[in-house]
Amino acid sequence: MKEIVVTEPMQKRLDKFLAETTAYSRSTLIKMIEKEDILVNGIPTKPSYKVKEKDTIKIVRELEEDTNLLPIPMKLDILYEDEDIMVINKPTGMVVHPGSGNKQNTLANGLLYYTKNLSDCNGQERPGIVHRLDKDTSGLMLVAKSNKAHSILTEDFKNHAVKREYIALLCGILPHNKAKIDAPIGRDKQNRKKMTVTSENSKNAITHLSVLKRYTENTLVSLHLETGRTHQIRVHMKYIGYPIFNDPVYGQQKYEEVGQFLHSKTINFIHPITKKEMYFSSSLPSYFAEYLETLEEKKN
């Protein structure tokens, strides 16, 4: 039996508090609380119970976590690492975490092989994963090594405190130098694997766009997200009539089997533990940069 006495004033959810103070993932803790394997002041409670100073929390029965995630050696482009976070430059074609039909060869597998010191707030199949990039999107990602860092970063993403710039090549010549796309995104009724702009069962989504360069048939743009919906940039670009070049789902033109021309170029955030401002930038993938050179030659 493990006993924890709360010594500081707080109003934090029980499952969240325990995820930060024990080795269990939040999903496992919820199961334990619901099975009454965790008691607060001697009585069963709910995961949403707000922990208070002087509460006594007892783990009366441990639950062994189930995970099929295997550590797999792979080359990781790590731009920064300390005890609490990592900044990864993800290549195109790499899936971030296991999903339906894909349990191996994801970034999560590679992270687990690289280090066992990863947050487990999102469960055992998503170690360290705070946010994600689509499989065919390249660029910068934040990874949490400690649960405390994970919880703080999650709130920072929710509050739009993490600033990211994306670079994308669009199909067509965009006439405006700047644009704000404010269009709600929800699941596509015709294809549940896709997202679309819709007023039904949707969430607000805002994307800011600035033109960097125009080519003969394409436009290079910089994008900043005010919200972080699934496939947001890709859906919004299709919505305004200028889809991401080489996008296998929402695009029109096809270049080759290399992934969509969408890159997470910069990330700016406050370190969750040291509180120092952090800024990172990554170069465009070689296929992206080389294709821009080709477009430049055609233009001239």
Description:
This protein has 6 helices and 18 strands. The protein is elongated and about 75 Å long. The chain has 3 domains: 2-59, Structural Genomics Hypothetical 15.5 Kd Protein In mrcA-pckA Intergenic Region, Chain A; 67-159, Pseudouridine synthase (2-Layer Sandwich); 161-283, Pseudouridine synthase (2-Layer Sandwich), CATH 3.30.2350.10. It has helices at residues 14-21, 26-34, 107-114, 147-158, 232-239, 286-299; strands spanning 2-5, 12-13, 38-40, 43-44, 50-51, 56-59, 78-81, 85-90, 138-144, 163-171, 178-182, 185-187, 195-197, 202-203, 206-214, 218-225, 262-270, 277-281. By secondary structure, it is α+β, with helices and mostly antiparallel strands. The strands form 4 sheets. Strands 7, 8, 9, 10, 11, 15, 16, 17 and 18 form a 9-stranded mixed sheet that branches. The longest helix has 14 residues, at 286-299.
